[in-house]
Amino acid sequence: MGLIIENISKKFISKHNQMHALEEVNLNINDGEFICIVGPSGCGKSTLLNVVAGLEKSCEGRVCLNGNVINGAGPDRAVMFQESALFPWIKVIDNVEFGMKMAGVPREERRNRALKYLKMVHLTKFQNSYIHELSGGMKQRVALARALTLDSKVLLMDEPFAALDSQTKTILQIELQQIWWETKKTIIFITHNVEEAVLLADRVIVMSANPGKIKKEFNIQLARPRKFESVDLTYLVADIMKELISEVEKVAKFEYDSDWNMEADTILSDIDNNLGAGL
Ligand SMILES: Nc1ncnc2c1ncn2[C@@H]1O[C@H](COP(=O)(O)OP(=O)(O)OP(=O)(O)O)[C@@H](O)[C@H]1O
Ligand SMILES: [Mg+2]
């Protein structure tokens, strides 16, 4: 049971290029587990999430949710992206109800659920506002409420807080932890922010690029609620950064001009110096 990602491979082939976005990715995720995926840009994180969402087909392998093979998008998996993709011409509450409307949920039930989740993200007061009247953080909370209304067991989040300022991000991280605690959802959360990953996850997955693979997994056994200031969290972040930096450097060497020169050793010694300084 749970979510099983089995031997997923994905190639993108165009006239001029062939990109091995994912190669033999295997991951078993328990019901209610919070997974964070980190990895260099272009290592296939979004592709993997889209395959799980059923928005993208893999070339090989399969994904099973509670014993059923995933074959396309479905209401058992809600997705949230970096950009909230809300409709500016309808009110907040109608945006939140939109997915349920598409899924054929009756009107009264729709309204009740929309209000329940707007309350959960603390936006009841703004239910009749239009999207352009909201801040970036409020928009992402509307998007989160919309994703939650489907009552899906699985929530797939692709850098949902990446575009937000750090204070708003902190508030949303706290809200998300509470919502996860209350709803017991299985969450896959992609981020470039290793601190955010350690703060939120039961398990952090580090991916490598070219081809996209799982490089290493870290079980995060820190007690919750977690705090950024915690020393244990800082050490785990440093461990994960060490895995990540060499991958980032590999990608940069491939993508950047040949005069680019930033050795992983320099970055790693910076991390060690920061730890030595108690950061
Ligand atoms: N539709 C597509 N057609 C061709 N190549 C694609 C397509 N989608 C993704 N790719 C390629 O597959 C690789 C993985 O892309 P993906 O978007 O999954 O990376 P990512 O890890 O999410 O990156 P980022 O951190 O920048 O969001 C990249 O090299 C990308 O160029
Ligand atoms: Mg991506």
How would you describe the overall organization of this protein?
The chain contains 8 helices and 10 strands. Helix 5 links the parallel strand 7 and strand 8 (186-190). The strands form 2 sheets. The protein has a 6-stranded mixed sheet with strand order 6-7-8-3-9-10, with helices on both faces. Strands 2-1-4-5 form a 4-stranded antiparallel sheet, covered by helices on one side. It has 2 domains: 3-76 and 153-276, P-loop containing nucleotide triphosphate hydrolases (Rossmann fold, 3-Layer(aba) Sandwich); 89-151, no CATH class. Helix 2 runs parallel beside helix 4 (136-149), helix 6 packs across helix 7 (231-255) and helix 7 packs antiparallel against helix 8. With 279 residues, it is of the alpha/beta class. The relative contact order is 0.16. The model has no long low-confidence stretch (mean pLDDT 90). The site of adenosine-5'-triphosphate has 11 residues, from strand 2 and helix 1.
